[in-house]
């Protein structure tokens, strides 16, 4: 890309005139701008603030992106030294270009956006590659932009390319039912080989500090939980949303895991665990998150006595984070490894897993069911305003559990 800004239309003006951009167009725009931001960071050691669609110039040829870039050098608009504040800003841009509210985007898209918006990617390029990953599972070209006939045509109906994109998301990514956003297919991968990285969108709406779930919402949380630990009569009930590959979840477990288990064991805390798998593509096997979730689901679904089941489940949950594979690493655990880890952790907790449970883990018998729970869990999380993993909710309100080490003590007072 040239050092000079491209002579094109600003992205905000294009969206205002022609409507939301198709995902492949957004991927192309974000990729180019993300590469520019990464180059700036390497040169200056600081990152942009105030990245918006209005400051991005886009050159279109034949309905495809020929060039895109920021229209100024960013002087006077840089963040703290070493801080990648531009990654959340790119996430905000991506959502604006996609033009869909959270309810109109599939959970996998929201998961990637939330991860970026929370600073979950070390560079703009890594974030862009995550969105690009699923987009590239499509084998057909994206629809042209602007669409023939302009904005009016875009609002009249779905083109064949758009229908195919939605079908791809439904079948390949999430098994989503009809009615989701037109341009809502994005990647859950953190890395891809493409240089067309992706920007990101308007921040997810945070959970209100005063929000309380309706009876229906509480019922949905209970139904989605992969495991519920603790007494129904406990003073406090919380919901934890996690992904076994999420490094921030690993940090949270290291920080608060032992205290959570202790509070459960003394009857003060009840926890509904929701295990997500949106980081699967960041694992070496591309299936690790769902298989790890399937391993603990095998314990949850077993006929073990309730007290032994809880001890084993919590012990294995802890062990999987203690032995967490590296995101985007070269290896992860096989099903046989997961069965071994589960058996060892349970034994250390004083419980022997039945052969039926270790066999179910080894065969991946509960992986598909865990994936279904993860899909509905991610949709549930985003509907409640969650911003990625880990997320801890109490009475529908989000707790800054990772940033506040004393959160549990305060909650139990």
Write the layout of secondary structure elements.
Layout: E1 9-10, H1 11-18, H2 23-44, E2 56-61, E3 64-70, H3 86-98, H4 107-117, H5 124-135, H6 150-156, H7 160-174, H8 215-224, E4 227-229, E5 236-243, H9 247-265, E6 269-276, H10 288-300, H11 306-322, H12 335-348, H13 355-363, H14 367-383, E7 391-394, E8 397-399, H15 407-412
Parallel strand pairs: 5-6
Antiparallel strand pairs: 1-2, 2-3, 4-6, 5-7, 7-8
Helix pairs in contact: 2-3, 2-5, 3-4, 4-14, 9-11, 10-11, 10-12, 10-13, 10-14, 11-12, 12-13
Task: Give a short overview.
The protein is 47% helix and 10% strand. It has 413 residues and is α+β, with helices and mostly antiparallel strands. The longest helix is centred in the N-terminal third of the chain and has 22 residues, at 23-44.
- CATH top level of the largest domain is Alpha Beta
- Helix count, DSSP H or I runs of 4 or more residues: 15
CATH fold label of the largest domain: Glutaredoxin
Question: How many strands, which pairing sense, and closed or not: the largest β-sheet?
Answer: 5 strands, mixed
Radius of gyration: 22 Å
Architecture overview:
- This protein has helices at about 10-20, 25-45, 85-100, 105-115, 125-135, 150-155, 160-175, 215-225, 245-265, 290-300, 305-320, 335-350, 355-365, 365-385, 405-410; strands at about 10, 55-60, 65-70, 225-230, 235-245, 270-275, 390-395, 395-400.
- It folds into two domains: about 10-175, Transferase(Phosphotransferase), domain 1 (Orthogonal Bundle), CATH 1.10.510; about 215-410, Glutaredoxin (3-Layer(aba) Sandwich), CATH 3.40.30.10.
- Strand 2 (about 55-60) and strand 3 form a beta hairpin.
- Strands 4-6-5-7-8 form a five-stranded mixed β-sheet, with helices on both faces. Strands 1-2-3 form a three-stranded antiparallel β-sheet.
- The protein is built from 15 helices and eight strands.
- Helix 9 (about 245-265) runs antiparallel to helix 11, helix 10 packs antiparallel against helix 11 (about 305-320) and helix 12 (about 335-350) runs antiparallel to helix 13.
- The protein is an alpha+beta fold and about 425 residues long.
- Helix content is about 45%, strand content about 10%.
